[in-house]
């Protein structure tokens, strides 16, 4: 199965099992907007909890807030979003399709890298065990030529975007002979800016209504509240403020399911530090955030850091944490050193002092900020991509069965326990209900009595339920039940009174938090 096929299956699976639905589907959907279903919302809540507790419980100097989506329009002038929050846009005149110019170039670079990988694979086959990959990459003329092209184009792109030279961006597209994937032609418009903020009006009378924006990041709600929190919480530097909330961007190219949406959710933390110490804290948070990811157990090799070639208007250093999605390594989280850009701009435009008094230095200053910013929806997609597994199972009678199982880390799984009476009679449902009522206070459980036990197991495999218990006639006599483990499919007979203890360690958020 190709990665593309796998991704298509994942999308279909998400819908079939109540994780994600297209928004307004009965009206043919709204592009790049999605709704989370009954299982999706549980998974999303669990990811949210994992992040929130890792930030605000495990770090004594980080507190949370929940600021409004609507903010004074001047916030977005000060933050630079009104002037500079745009993507370079280009249209193909024949297909009338609209693209992000930088994405077209990045895709071209990706194709060149694939060419190199193909050369390496071919050579590996040809030379067998004696193949020295590093030497081959350093010396093979075709590889060297392709790598030089990649380096030249990457540098040109970084410089032109950095200098806001859109004519040069177009020239790169022409020089690389990039064609529209739909029309196949190279009949392009000029490259121009496209601001990504959605606006609306606030006020009942249209004449005096003010234009306000739907926030494109949650971070500004933290910046404008920084002094409120510092003073009321008597916070001392360094300290952080965390927030989870919706953000909105009118993305030009919105695709890849919940990876790039127009309405999405961010989990952001601004860490306020002494000026001059920001790059040390930047390294600290890079490592710490990577540990949060790898604790999920999806394989360290599936993550990498990516340094930004083009820094956002507010940053002096920026790295992404990328995860290997079925469509390649892509950004899940950004770690940015934002200097004092935001606080200093707000101080200037609002005329209100946003300084911190450092009693050790006996000095007032505007703190510097290191930000960690992770997309909740992207993390959700990361978990599903890592978890989705198709397995062949050989039965005792030699028959081969297939199952789709979501190997979601148990602490994040939407349902922790499936509770099944073997048959729907003889007092088994009552006994099952008793067990369910006892455990549902601690864990999200689901009671199911329809279909064969095998079918019920499959349904719960497909939504990632780590444990299922079956209550049979013996349970009525000795209070034992069969507990079945999702990943190994092993079944064991245990006393029902031990279920809480057996599950607690495996499914609790505490264990996951301890492992960071
Ligand atoms: N406050 C900094 C900031 O917003 P960003 O790199 O633009 O930085 C941070 O966004 C994270 O938000 C990204 O790493 C990504 O996970 C998520 N994100 C950004 N745009 C998104 C979109 N259109 N759809 C889904 N997630 C998005």
Low-pLDDT stretches are none
The total of beta strands comes to: 23
Side-by-side strand order of the widest sheet? 3-9-10-16-13-12-11
Helix content: 25-40%
Distinct small molecules bound, one entry per kind: glycyl-adenosine-5'-phosphate
The average pLDDT score comes to 94
Instruction: Determine the strand fraction and express it as a percent band.
Output: 25-35%
- Write down the overall geometry: globular
Number of helices: 18
- Which structural class do the helices and strands define? alpha+beta
Main sheet characteristics: 7 strands, mixed
Terminal Cα span: 33 Å
Rounded to an integer in angstroms, the radius of gyration calculated over CA atoms is 27 Å
Task: Provide a quick synopsis of the model.
The chain has 516 residues and is an alpha+beta fold. A hairpin with a 7-residue loop joins strand 7 (199-202) and strand 8 (210-213). It starts with a helix and ends with a helix.
Molecular structure report:
The structure is a single chain. Helix 2 packs across helix 13 (376-387). The strands form seven sheets. This protein has a seven-stranded mixed sheet. The protein has a five-stranded mixed sheet with strand order 20-19-21-22-23, with helices on both faces. It contains 18 helices and 23 strands. Strand 12 (317-325) and strand 13 form a beta hairpin. 40% of the residues lie in helices and 25% in strands. It is an alpha+beta fold and 516 residues long. The site of glycyl-adenosine-5'-phosphate has 19 residues, from strand 10, strand 13, strand 16 and helix 13.
């Amino acid at each position: 199965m190709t990665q593309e096929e796998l991704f298509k299956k994942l999308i279909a699976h998400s819908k079939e099992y109540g994780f994600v639905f297209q928004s307004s589907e009965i009206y043919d959907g709204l592009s790049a907007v999605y709704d989370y279903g009954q299982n999706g919302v549980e998974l999303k809540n669990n990811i949210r909890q994992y992040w929130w507790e890792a930030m605000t419980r495990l770090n004594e100097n980080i507190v949370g807030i929940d600021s409004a989506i609507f903010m004074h329009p001047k916030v977005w002038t000060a933050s630079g979003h009104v002037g500079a929050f745009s993507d370079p846009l280009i249209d193909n005149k024949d297909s009338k399709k609209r693209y992000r110019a930088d994405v077209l170039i990045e895709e071209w670079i990706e194709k060149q890298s694939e060419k190199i990988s193909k050369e390496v694979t071919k050579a590996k086959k040809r030379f067998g065990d004696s193949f020295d990959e590093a030497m081959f990459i350093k010396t093979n003329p075709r590889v060297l030529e392709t790598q030089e092209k990649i380096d030249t184009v990457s540098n040109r792109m970084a410089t032109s975007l950095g200098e806001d030279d859109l004519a040069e961006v177009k020239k790169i597209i022409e020089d690389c002979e990039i064609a529209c994937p739909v029309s196949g032609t190279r009949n392009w418009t000029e490259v121009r800016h496209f601001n990504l903020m959605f606006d609306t009006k606030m006020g009942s009378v249209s004449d005096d209504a003010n234009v306000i924006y739907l926030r494109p990041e949650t971070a500004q709600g933290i910046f404008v509240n920084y002094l409120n929190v510092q003073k009321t919480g008597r916070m001392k530097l360094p300290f952080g403020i965390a927030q989870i909330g919706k953000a909105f961007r009118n993305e030009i190219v919105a695709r890849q399911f919940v990876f790039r949406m127009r309405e999405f959710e961010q989990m952001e933390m601004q860490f306020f530090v002494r000026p001059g110490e920001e790059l040390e804290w930047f390294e600290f948070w890079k490592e710490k955030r990577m540990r949060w990811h790898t604790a999920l157990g999806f394989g360290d090799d599936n993550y990498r850091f990516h340094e930004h070639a083009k820094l956002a208007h507010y940053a002096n250093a920026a790295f992404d944490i990328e995860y290997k999605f079925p469509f390649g390594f892509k950004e899940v989280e950004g770690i940015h050193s934002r200097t004092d850009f935001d606080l200093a701009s707000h101080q200037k435009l609002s005329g209100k002092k946003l300084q911190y008094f450092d009693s050790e230095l006996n000095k007032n200053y505007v703190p510097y900020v290191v930000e960690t910013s992770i997309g909740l929806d992207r993390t959700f997609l990361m978990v599903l991509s890592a978890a989705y597994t198709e397995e062949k199972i050989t039965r005792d009678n030699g028959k081969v069965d297939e199952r789709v199982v979501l190997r979601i880390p148990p602490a994040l799984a939407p349902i922790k326990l499936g509770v099944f009476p073997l048959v729907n009679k003889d007092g088994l449902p009552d006994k099952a209900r008793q067990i369910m009522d006892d455990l549902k206070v601690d864990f999200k459980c689901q009671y199911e009595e329809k279909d064969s036990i095998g079918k019920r197991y499959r349904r719960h495999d497909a939504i990632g339920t780590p444990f299922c218990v079956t209550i049979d006639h013996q349970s009525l006599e000795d209070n034992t039940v069969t507990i079945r483990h999702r990943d190994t499919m092993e079944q064991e007979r245990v006393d029902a009174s031990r279920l809480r203890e057996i599950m607690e360690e495996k499914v609790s958020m505490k264990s996951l938090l301890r492992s960071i």
